[in-house]
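Archive entry. Fields below.
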Amino acid sequence: MSFGSPWFTLPEFTYHKPKTLKEALELLDKYGEEAKVMAGGVGLLAFMKERLMAPSHVIDLKGVPELGQAIYKEGEGLTIGATVTLNELARYGPLKKFGALHDAVRDIADPIIRNRATLVGNLCEAIPWVDTPPALIALGAEVEIRSLKGERRVPVKDFIKGPVEIDLEPGELVTAVHVPEPRRNSRSRFIKYNTGSEFALVSVAANVVMDGGRVRDVSLVYGAVSSTPQVAVKAADALKSAEKPWEVLDEVGRIASEEVEAVSDVLASEEYRRHLIRVLTLRVLREVMG
Amino acid sequence: MAGKFVGKPIPPQDAFLKATGTAPYNYDIELPGMLYAKLVTSTVPHGRIKRINVEEALKVPGVVKVVTGKDIPYMVGMYAGDRDLLAIEKVRWVGHPVAAVIAESLEAAERAAELVDVEYEELPAVFDPLEAMKPGAPLIHEHMEKYRRLPVFKPVPGTNIANKFRVVRGDVETALKEADIVIEEEFHIKHVSHAFMETQNVIAHWHLDGTIEIWTSWQNPNPVRQIMAESFGIPYNKIIVKIPFVGGGFGGKAGLGWEALVAVLSREAGHRPVKLVLSRKEQFTSGACREGFHAFVKAGFKKDGRFIAYDVKYVLDAGGYADYTVNVGRAVAYSADGSYEIPNIRCEAYTVYTNKVPTTALRGFGYSESHWVLEQVIERAAKKLGMDSAEVRRINLIKPGVSITATGERLREDVGNPRKVLESILQEIGWGKPSEKPKEPWKIRAKGVALLVKGPAQPPKAPSSAAIKFNEDGTINLLVSTGNFGQGTVTALAQIVAEEFGVPLESVRVDWIRDTHSAPYSWQTVGSRGLFTDGIAVLNAVKDAKRQIFKVASEALRCPEEYLELVNGEVRVKGKPWMKIPLKDIVMGYSYPDGTSIGGPIIGRGVYMSVHTTNLDPETGQGHPTIFHTYGGTGVEIELDLLTGEIKVLKAVQAFDIGRVINPLLLKQQFHGGFIMGMSIALFEEIKFDERGWVLNPNFTSYYVARIKDVPPVVEKFVETPQADGPYGARGVGELTMIGVAPAIANAIFNAIGVKLNNLPMTPEEVWKAIKAQRPDLIEKAVKEYQKKMKEVKAVA
Amino acid sequence: MRFEGSFRINADRDKVWEFISNPSNVIQCVPGVQDFSVQEGKRIAAKVKVKIGFISGLFQAASKVLEEDPQNYHARMELSGSGAGSGFKALVDLKLEEADGGTELKWSADVSISGPLGSLAKSMVEGYVKKMVDQLFDCVKRRLEG
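PREDICTED_STRUCTURE:
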């Protein structure tokens, strides 16, 4: 998200381009809060240009080869490195198994931005309007975090703590996102409503496990409605408990539209957002249950 | 007269350089020794400047100087004269330039600008023009009576009203009483941006000898020179304004921009050239946009459909300065009657200062606003009368040669054929035939039409001129100062010259730089006037050059002038085509075999002077405001998604009586471009302000402009009713192509479901809110339809 | 955005009033203050570093007393400032009440934030204001009680 900048130039900083992960972690450890990492730079440089951030050190990760890989292992899932761009990911065949993420990645911004922007960057920006977090949460993805002290994994849902706030300490680096193998009979999709807007006014990711005519499990995650992605638990329960799920879709949409936190901002009012939640729930369920 | 070039689809002459990315725009230009300027802008909407601390800024290496308003206390402007170069004593909006840093590099200028510390004493601010008009509102310009303005504008000192203008004809009060039905409504339009690709940018060099050299991304060099010369008291010929390729104007580069400021900065910086480039955010917050607009109308109709009374009050939210917007306030009033003859009309327009970003002309200014209102009034009246709206339009359409406009102008016989325009739109859009039913039952399809008329909004005296200069090989330099910022006018002018001399089109060149020193004068390039005014000037220059050429040829061929003709670049004796002289042997003077010569270098000159335009009566607005009227209209077929409120235009028809098509390719491009801009403003665009007057979306991620995916097929209908005094009978059309789009869309929705959309833009949220307020049943029905359809899909699967 | 709250300070009302009516006492308790000056009429100009999530920026801020009523231990102030392309303005109302041996400080503030920080979600700014106020009054408490 760009807020618009009066500035053409960036604040002063020292640029580092480590060649190994170890080197990157050492730099991060050394400079702590004064350092920011850069992958595609789409978010970071915009923030710097707008003077919302002024790190003294920028650590460019694009020289670290092991961060640039997307690897799918049958039965384990998909691991996406920190510098994998959205277009590289979109072209990676196995992504199709992860329907919601596939949808989200292919439709972010425009091809030029997708050539530079990375999935991990999109996630770490933690701006309410970005597309990939709802899809990642619906798919149960985890963030892989490393520092000189070791490694930890955090579910994406917990990683995003607030707008522009993530669970990452100084010295830590998000090295990858891990998306687990989809469950049997599951299907996931992501859709967004962005008519007349560069960013989604509302987005939704749904991940459904069908069992005959019933819904055994479902995850409904809404993006762009509030400061963090919203998981609709009651709506999901209503769908799971329905004997004829096709009969209750609007009811599910209504529950979701009342249950989640929604705000007014420059893109849409709370009232309209809640209405769109209802409508998009119908649309996404039609896609995943059909 | 069918021509070899006139009437042919010839690509614009500058297309190749633009397509290859090599065209030199102002943004690309750098002068030796050039410095960079950066603005420091106000962070409060209304306040007194208590202190500006520049100490820290001056310490940044590379900084040459920091200039503030009290160093350069000039007031400038085109019409209202209410603009300071940098805020003097007080700031009037968030974004008002307060200081300018000049430095050796852009980096240094920006670093230093961040360090300029301004202390304000905040004053009560007013953001709503309806509040700002009331007695006792905080005054934004306390001394507007002192401004150097054009005398036709009437500010109301002691208030925030920058201009008040009235058009009165007939007796509206009585007519409203006599009306069988009265439509009473309010309409509102939000601020929009010109969204040109190249933001405003200027290089100025105040030379040591007092010559001021300006390079600017602007529509026409002459008003820049005029306003600077008048404001600074400098002779006109000391100011040279040059304009290279321009990345879009749309009215936002008319009048004066930043040139006067940057010129003074150059002087203050020791007479070195200085460049100022606005970022997109600065363009939104410190540049000027289209005003916010409010209209309150009462319209009376008789049972038979006659429109007999129109009582309108317009209020324009002009922002911190209203320099050009005072003229918008005139145009909106004298265009209130559109394409119709309304015998009783009263129209009051108030241009009002507020503590928001300033405003200026935008493509079709005044007319876009008046037609947004008028064309919907017609539609509403038709429904109330139980009549077909097309029939109501037909009944009230002006009659050429007979009808009198709101300003009391009797329309010429060859003014155009609005009837034919209307019928061609109705036919193409399939008026009266229901739209195909959409496959998705929660959507509806509908058709809507809007007519319009426009002429150039300009003072009564607004001349143009042109010169034709021949080169040694017989090629031609066509000299004009009308701007070339995407319209293609200069290509059309070159076609005219090539046609008239019978030379290849490549032989006629219009330079890509417009300048005030060597190009003949034209008042401005605005109001869709360029082809009309400069076209006439060019034809007169052709006539003048031909006269000189025939005189020489007559002597050389020993034949009276009346027996000579100009064919394929040669002067021939009629009937004896072997007796001829190529142009190149005449245009530098003709030489006899023995070396003696006659004639000399040929320069043709021609002028255009406005015919019959007058000042308007200060009390009643009566008079002749424009040099031509172009009639036209837009028809659309739209699809509305009742679930989201989203409007999609499926098909559009654009019909205009342009008198005579000079270049059908460029004309189609105007029809398409205007439609896209009109649709974007109709459906998406809005500058949003927060409660402190800050722009919330000063960027193209949250200020959305239509993308190619949003654009439907556009059908072009050319109606040609030549106007006797137009070049080849042509009239202007550039701006008009966007004016009808918004009302046509709103009319389509009203026709289909009776939901009134009185506010622009018609974003999905706004449309959804309107449906929810007026027809909530439609939304619930749509949800049910959606569920039903899903179950059907499931059943099939 | 409106905020309000109250704090208990274990010190007598006159002592608290005396402390908070001295601008340089209060400003030193504002988190993130890098530099400040006290001017005539109890005006303060300060540079304050604001950090919300990973966004941070330096604000030029100013405060002035709009109304001071020592009899009723009541004051109104206006805070304003700009930085990071954003601006803010806050009208703050303070009142001291006696509460069994100590003092109850009641406050409310109407805050408006413009620019990028304003267009980010309200909850984020709310969280920040709450945290900032907590820190400020904790500091006041410490200084008075300690």
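CURATOR_NOTE: The domain at 292-402+415-458+614-776 of chain B is CATH 3.30.365.10 (Aldehyde Oxidoreductase; domain 4).
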